[in-house]
Amino acid sequence: MQQFQKEIPTQPQITPQPNQQQQKTIIYIENLDQGISEDYLYRKFKEVGEIASLKITKDKSTQKSKGQAFITFIHPDSAEEARKKFNNQIFIRNSIRVKPYFNFHGADKKANIFISNLPEDADDLELEQEFSRFGTVLSVDVHRDQTGKQLNYGYVQFERKEDAENLIKRIQNHPLTHKGKLLKLEQFKAQSERKVESTSIYLRAFAAPLPQHLSAQDSAMRSFEYGWSLVIKDYLTRVQGDQVRDCFVKIDSVTRQPWAMITFDTFDQAKVNLDLCESQRKHPCFNSGARVALDLIKKNGPPANSDGSLQFTIQQIEPFFEEMSKDPFDTFKGESDNFFFNMVYSKHLNPDERLIIIQNIKEDVTKEQISEFLGQFGKVIRLTIRKTKNPRFQVQQCFVHYQTLEDSKRARSELYDDANEKIVNKRKEIFKDGRAVANILLSKTMRKEFKEIKKQSQNIFANPGGRQLLQPQIPNYQMMPPPMPFPHPHPQRNPQRGQRYPFPPSQRPVQRPPVNMIKPTEPIRNVEKYQPNFLQEFMDYQTVQSRMEDFLKIPTDSQRQVLGNLLFQKVFDVVKDKESTKKLVGMLIDPSQFEIGDILNMFDDVNELQTYIDDGLQLIREEQKGN
């Protein structure tokens, strides 16, 4: 090993900003095994050429390998040979990935293209050869997840923006395929650019399903997809006068129904067409026929493959369209009961307000019952019932997607209409305590952000408007005095005559019934205040866990009281002050801030509970200063 260490160049650092010629001599390696050292890499890669420098990147704090390395060769040919020879080869246990070094920050962003719908076995080198037909390619990067699994999208960086722009224009008439998959290409956009108003709309299931025997034939599927794209473009441009940049249509292999992605020149055009779908529950561009679609194909000609060959001929597809025109359920008539539409926004920024999550559903309620109940508010496109993932907290909930925004708004409004006796009775049948909970479903990213915001600015510790801190109904145990070592005389309890009531009548103390005093010489008995049955039934958290199904059946207020009782000792062990503990526990079981599931998680997540305690104590101190 010392021999190889001596051979490694003493200056392994690569040039911070190498020029284009220098970049060709550098390779970037990822997914290295933790046991691989620099001398191991040097011994392997020296086989393809002389090495100028080599560096494995390490974590600054732990000094452990990050699984990445940079190697600079003397000659560019050696770097290219290394990529061909070692890419996807197994080193120790991991299959490594060898890529050309590329300084993305110094490249022209307008020459970068985003690729999606890649095949599962897409290879960087093969894609580079494919795209090199359209210009000089600097880099191809297929993205992977944290486990190393290859995803279906990536980026290709051209040297010149003109090459990227010409390729985008070319695929509008000549789609690009790779290993049988139709690639989707679009120009790279920075995050700030992607936040602008969308110009695309998504239309799904806008026509009747194709017959089974036609959907099994590839040429029929492709010709119907192409025919639909021409029908939609023709109506939008000829009848409505819209400027359509792109219209992509696919037929779902499962439902056999078409869906389309239409991109307009402006946001206003996209919004007008979306509003048309909202008001009519369909779009007039779908009202056509198979013969019209075939005529448009004859007029525009069949589409071509990436190599210039035709995907099909008119003679091949004429029988399909003739058969479809005689079918009473001609798909080109655009009739559908489950038509769905949406503006193509980022889900992170714009949640779909038609998608609602319904919670607090009884365990024995069926999908048919909830579907019938929610269907009275509007057209339901999709409804899914599932249980929460938390095995300790198995709660049934429902995801319902309404067709229009008006349907969703009506559901979220009339669901809580207490004046409607029919709805009130149905709520009692379906929801626990007759209390329905309906919210717009946020994306995973947005839910995470909302949880942080809830903790930091809108949570129980913000105390908006000077709201008084709640105190839980926690059973108090009477504190008994210690036994007296010997009897002693008590001071006179009754005042002398004339001094019985020194206060004005309005301030006189209320007379209370006599209390049986414990004589000092008698042994002191533990007197416990009466507890509700639920507090006695769930006296520890282990019982709650083991009997979670029974626990969730008791009233919600009693659930909070039980959990507050169990939290009391955990919080007191940290705070060491009874009054502060009461206030903190009151915050933690406040129904306006935490769901039951959130409170249950506090017993498992010690760090989260400690955060709440720290923030609560800070609020209490600020309140005391204000007083």
Automatic annotation (TrEMBL):
Keywords: RNA-binding
Domain (PABC): residue spans on this chain: 543-625
Domain RRM, residue spans: 25-103, 111-190, 354-437
InterPro entries, sorted: PABP_HYD_C, RRM_dom
Pfam families found in the cross-reference section: MLLE, RRM_1
GO MF term set: RNA binding
Composition bias type Low complexity, residue spans: 8-22
Record protein name field: Polyadenylate-binding protein
Native source species: Paramecium octaurelia
Lineage of producing organism: Eukaryota, Sar, Alveolata, Ciliophora, Intramacronucleata
